[in-house]
Amino acid sequence: MATIMTVDDTATMRQMVSFTLHSVGHEVVQASDGQEALALAKGRKLDMVIADVNMPNMDGITLVKSLRALPEYKFIPILLLTTESHDAKRQEGKGAGATGWIVKPFNPEQLLSVVKKVLG
Amino acid sequence: MNTAPSIRRPHVHSPRMPWWLPGVLGLLGAWIWVAIYAPFWTTFGSGVLFGMCMITLLALSRKNLVMPATLMDEQDSQQAEIVQREIEALMPHATSAEVLPQVDEMVQSMASEHQKRRLEELLLHWVSVSQQYSDAALSMRKEIHNVTEQTEHAATTIANSFQAIINKATVQARQAMELLEGTQGAMTEGVPQSLKDFIRVSDERLTKMADEVVRVADLSVRMVRELDAVQQRAQAIDGFLLDVDKLADQTSLLALNADIEAARVGEQGRGFSVVAQEVRRLSKRSHEFSNSIRQHLEGVRAGLNKTYGDMRSLSAADVNHATGIKNEVLQLTQSLEGKNREVADTVSSINAISKEIAQDVQNVVISLQFHDITSQKLNGMLGPMDELRHMLFQLMQETLTFDKSLLKRLPGDDRWLARLHDVAQPTAVAATAYLDSRPQADSAPHAPPKNGTGPAVELF
To answer: Is A12 close to B368, i.e. CB distance below 8 A?
Structure first.
C-alpha cells in the first residue's frame, strides 16, 4: 500500500480523505496548508499528494510548483481536490504540474478509483 | 447678480423670520399711517426719516455690525440659509440695491460661511458613516469567522461519529459474514466447524446408531428362534430320558425275576443272584442318572424359557425404540436444519443491512463536505468586504489630512479627531493584517464560474 499526503485547511476534509484512504490500507500523512505540506514532503518519501487549492499561507497550485521543483517529487502524482471547477483555474493547476483535478464534494469510491488508477 | 452657489440641503426646516424684518415692516406701517392721516409735511418728514433708517441699516450691515453668522448656534445655520434664499429672492426686485456692492458681498459671505458649515457637516457625517460601516464589517467578519469555526467543529464531530458508525457497521457486517460462514462452513479433519456440519454429522451418527439397534433387534429375533429349536431338542431329550427310565424299570424287573429264579435254584443259583442284584443296582443308578439329567434339563429349560421371553420382549422393544429414536432424530435434525436456514437468512439480512447502513452513512459523510464549500464561499465574501473597508479607511485618512483646520472648527473637534484616530487605526491594522495574511486565491476563486466548468474528475 502507498503513503499518501492529504493537504487541506479544513480538518473535516482531511479526516474524510484519510478515512477513505485508510479503509483500503493506505498510509496517510496530513497537512493543513501548503507550507506544512512542503516541510513534511521534504522529510519523507511519499507516493502521492492530494491537495486542496485554496489554503492559507501557501495555496495548492504554489505547492504543486514547489514540489515539482524538488527532484524526488518530479514524477510523483499530485491530485488537486478543490471546490474550484473553473476551467481557467483547472488549466492553471495543469500548468503547475498537477496530475489530476477532483471537484468537491468527492465520492470516496471515485477518489479510490482515481488513486488506484494514478498509482498504477 | 446671484453668484452664490446653490447649497443642497439634506433636511427641510421651517423658515424663520429675519431679525430686522419686524423693524422695517413697523417703520413702513408707521409711514403709511402717517401718509394717510397726517398732513403733507408730516408725511414728507416721516418718509425722509424712513429712508435715513434704511441707509443707516445698510451702513451698519456693511461694517459687519449686524449679527454675524459665526455667533449663531448650530440650529441657526438653517436660519442663515433661509436669509440667503430670501435675499436672493428679493434681489431681482430690489433694483435700488443692485447698485450697492455691499449686498452682494454680504450674501456671498453668508453663503460661503454656510457652505463651509455644510461641508463640515457632510465630512462629519461621511466619517461617521464610514466608521459605522467599518465597525459593522469588522463585527460581521468576526461573526462569520465564529460561525465558520463552530460549523467546522460540528462537522468534524459529526464526521467522526459517522465514521465510527461506518467502522462499527463494517465490523458488524464482517462478523455477520463470519457467523454465516460458521453456520454453513465445512468440516476440518472430521470435526464439524459449523452448525450445519454438526447437524449433518449428528444425523449420520444417530442414524447409524439406530441402524445398529435395529440390527441387534434382528439378531435377538434370530436368537429367539434358535432358542425355540433348543427348547424343542430339550423336550426330545426329556422323551429319551423317559425311555431310559422305562429301560431301567424293565432291567430292574428282569433283575428281580433273575434273583427269584436264582433263589429257587438254590446254592447253584447264588452266583446268578449276585449278578441279578448288580443289574438291579445298575438299573437304580440309571434311574438316578436319568432323574439327575432331567433335573438339569428342567433347569436348562427354565433358563431357556426365561431367556426366550426376555429375548422376545427385548427384540420387540429394540425395534420399536430404535425406530422411535430414528424418527425423533430425523425430526430434530429437520428442525435444526430449518432453524439453521432461518439463522443463515437472518445473518444474511443483517449483513446486507449493515452494508446499507455503511453506505448511507458514507453518503452523509460526503454531504458533510458542505462545510468546506460554504466556508470557502464565506471567505470569498470576506475578501471584497475587507477591501472596501480598507478603501474606506484610506478615504477617512485622506479626509483627515485634507483640511484639519476645517475639522478643528467643529464643536468638540479635538475629541472627535481623537476618537476617529483611536477607532480607525486598529480597524485599519486589522484590515491590513488580514489582507496581508489571507490566501492569494481567496479574493476571486469562489465566485461562480463565468465560463464552462470541466468534469468532476479529470486526469491531465
So the answer is: yes
